Amino acid sequence: MSCHAEHEDHGGHGHGHHDHEHDHTDDITPALQYSLYQHINFDGISTMNEAQQDSGKAIVKKTWAERLQVVPELESDADEQLLMTVPFTGQVKLHSILLRTSPSDSAPRTLKLFINRDSLDFETAEELQPTQIIELSQTSDIQELPVKRALFSKVRHLSLFFSDNFGDGDEDTTRISYIGFKGEWMQLGRAPSQILYEAAPNPNDHTLKGTNVNRMGSGIGRGA
Question: What predicted TM-score, i.e. pTM, was given to this entire model?
Answer without folding.
Answer: 0.72
